[in-house]
């Protein structure tokens, strides 16, 4: 933790199966409340009511509302990374990985709308939550792109800038087609976006 960060430490992780189950129930309840109402309109009492636990129980697992919010963003990051690893694993080239990854990302957001709303909401709660979430993906993405360039799979270029560009494409497609209004065919969205990624805008 940076020296300038004065936030108190979160309660320790539960040591028993029962404690873990209670913490997971609080996370699920928080996901529903935050995802439905937004961070600022949500309250700890609503979360505990949704989880069907006493108010005091909440503080055994999280120190305050922001703490459980941060935990949810981390939970989203871990779930999404696992989902992408699983669905991109069959790819034998970086371009295959790009298409499979985009399709997997959009399907994930479609099934986890509340979690993704929470990630987007994190910018207004604390910019470091939001930037930290995307920085993790950008660093991983940059390394993959640099490796693909070394292997001659893609043209030379700035891996970091490219990573943020590709993340931006996925992020806004997720907002438009997974959160706001689902298209008749998500495959067509993926095909159109991948064509842009693979070939750019120049006349071919």
Uncertain segments are 1-6
What is the count of helical runs? 9
Our measurement of the CA-to-CA distance between the termini, rounded to an integer number of angstroms, reads: 50 Å
**Helical fraction:** over 70%
Q: What summary fits the major beta sheet?
A: none
Radius of gyration: 19 Å
Category by helix and strand content = mainly alpha
Please report the total strand number as a whole number.
Answer: 0
Q: Report mean pLDDT, rounded to a whole number.
A: 93
Region (Disordered): 1-22
Keywords: DNA-binding, Repressor, Transcription, Transcription regulation
Protein name: TetR family transcriptional regulator
InterPro entries: DNA-bd_HTH_TetR-type_CS (IPR023772), Homeodomain-like_sf (IPR009057), HTH-type_Tx_Regulator (IPR050624), HTH_TetR (IPR001647), Tet_transcr_reg_TetR-rel_C_sf (IPR036271)
Please provide a brief summary of the model:
The chain is mainly α. It is 74% helix and 0% strand.
Provide a descriptive summary of the structure in words.
InterPro entries: DNA-bd_HTH_TetR-type_CS, Homeodomain-like_sf, HTH-type_Tx_Regulator, HTH_TetR, Tet_transcr_reg_TetR-rel_C_sf. This is TetR family transcriptional regulator. Residues 43-62 bind DNA. Residues 1-22 are annotated as: Disordered. It is built from nine helices and no strands. The chain is mostly helical. α4 (65-88) packs across α6 (113-125) and α6 packs across α7. It starts with 16 loop residues before the first helix and ends in a 5-residue tail after the last helix. Mean pLDDT is 93; it is low at 1-6.
């Amino acid at each position: 933790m940076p020296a300038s960060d004065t936030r108190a430490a979160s309660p320790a992780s539960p040591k028993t199966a029962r404690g873990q189950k209670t913490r997971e129930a609080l996370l699920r309840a928080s996901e529903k409340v935050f995802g439905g109402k937004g961070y600022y309109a949500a309250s700890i009492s609503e979360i505990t009511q949704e989880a069907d636990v006493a108010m005091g129980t909440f503080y055994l697992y999280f120190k305050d509302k922001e703490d459980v919010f941060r935990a949810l963003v981390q939970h989203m990051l871990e779930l999404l990374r696992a989902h992408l690893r699983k669905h991109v694993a069959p790819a034998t080239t970086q371009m295959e990985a790009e298409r499979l990854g985009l399709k997997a990302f959009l399907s994930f957001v479609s099934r986890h709308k509340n979690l993704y709303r929470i990630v987007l909401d994190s910018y207004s709660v604390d910019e470091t939550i939001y930037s930290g979430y995307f920085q993790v993906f950008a660093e991983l993405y940059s390394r993959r792109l640099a490796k693909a360039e070394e292997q001659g799979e893609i043209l030379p270029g700035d891996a970091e800038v490219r990573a943020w560009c590709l993340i931006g494409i996925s992020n806004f497609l997720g907002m438009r087609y997974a959160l706001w209004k689902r298209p008749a065919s998500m495959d067509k969205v993926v095909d159109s976006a991948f064509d842009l990624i693979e070939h750019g805008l120049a006349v071919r």
